[in-house]
């Protein structure tokens, strides 16, 4: 039995949780012999340099959870009724046989697709101009904790603790129907709404339901690479569609597509808003050529610069627009809560498909979010984020004008800005050099769907970087850019 193991006193989890985790692992991996008593509370506490009560509490909890049994005057033992322990190290017991070759077994290799512009350790950077992450100081801690507590009331647990194959949390559906969707100009019945594990799952479900090897999937270029990756996974041909300073260009290239993915409210990545006339023209084209539109409204109401434009879905009276929404940009991307709105027959099959994948997104999460919406906390949060992001956007815009006057910024909307560097300057090289200085930016090529787009672009997110770091960050970026330009000039590039 490990009577000594490392405890991290700076970790977010408590010492009690860490001790429990170590013991449970040791028990489940078969590291504790059934016939030998665990160390006494006093000894273990002494070894680990923690309070005796900490160990007493852990042992008591493990007894009530069935991992341990207490034998009078002999101490604590592993419960012999636990299922047989798993081998601790995968692969033991296989002798010297070579490892399996997986290359020809896997039918798809999603890992082959270039992925994620995101750095997983972005918090370590002093100037994280990352996109799609939130500054944790903006998280509505007290409101969320309250909802989370209410979501584990006895009644709430009764509501969510059993599987719900064919529906979602009714309160959440009602809140989306009454609170979120009307704010985007959308009216939907509850059988036209499906809760998903983020918009990612909504896109995946749609691709699996709508695409095959014979399909052509249209997508803005530059655009959201995840959507293209998913379409390719189902064998679809990905058709890149031009984007200009007003968003998706409506031209002949749209006509052969079975479905077109677009981000009309804030084009991803350029942030521009698709004007009304183009939206109308697009719907007409969809009718004429019989294609579907997948509207990703990922930033929903985060539109502080002007009056929010209603969703494309609000103009759709034929059920051609399949609307994808997400709470990742307001509440937290880690929560993984999104939703899909479309005609009832499509939603029914999406629900059936979702059931085969994961039955449903966790209902305790659904209930906590439903409460968060119903108590008006989400509205409060959106207002707070809008104020905060507006300030950050203004600060970023001023800093760009002051320090990078030769770069062209898109209208700054939502939570990011798309920056065009002087011709010849490579965004990927700038990103690499910036990272060496503690500055995290995203190079524009991360959003290229096809080939041939210019590489002198970068995306600067401002949802994760605190206000007071924006100006110094851009000043530093200007220095790094100047260095790169000098080097290229010397090399005659
Ligand atoms: C275009 C776009 N759609 C959707 C999302 C959010 O996806 P999810 O709801 O899966 O977090 C993002 C996040 O960065 C995005 O950029």
TrEMBL record:
Domain named HTH gntR-type is located at 13-81
Q: Give the family this protein belongs to, as stated in its UniProt record.
A: In the C-terminal section; belongs to the class-I pyridoxal-phosphate-dependent aminotransferase family.
Q: Which SMART domains match?
A: HTH_GNTR
Name of protein: 2-aminoadipate aminotransferase
Q: Which controlled-vocabulary keywords does the entry list?
A: Aminotransferase, DNA-binding, Pyridoxal phosphate, Transcription, Transcription regulation, Transferase
| This protein's record includes keyword Protease | no
Which SUPFAM superfamilies does this one have?
Answer: PLP-dependent transferases, Winged helix' DNA-binding domain
Domain of life, per lineage: Bacteria
One Pfam family in the UniProt entry: Aminotran_1_2
The record's CDD domains line, in alphabetical order, gives: AAT_like (cd00609), WHTH_GntR (cd07377)
GO molecular function (one): DNA binding
PROSITE patterns, A to Z: HTH_GNTR
Stored InterPro entries = Aminotransferase_I/II_large, HTH_trans_reg/aminotransferase, PyrdxlP-dep_Trfase, PyrdxlP-dep_Trfase_major, Tscrpt_reg_HTH_GntR, WH-like_DNA-bd_sf, WH_DNA-bd_sf
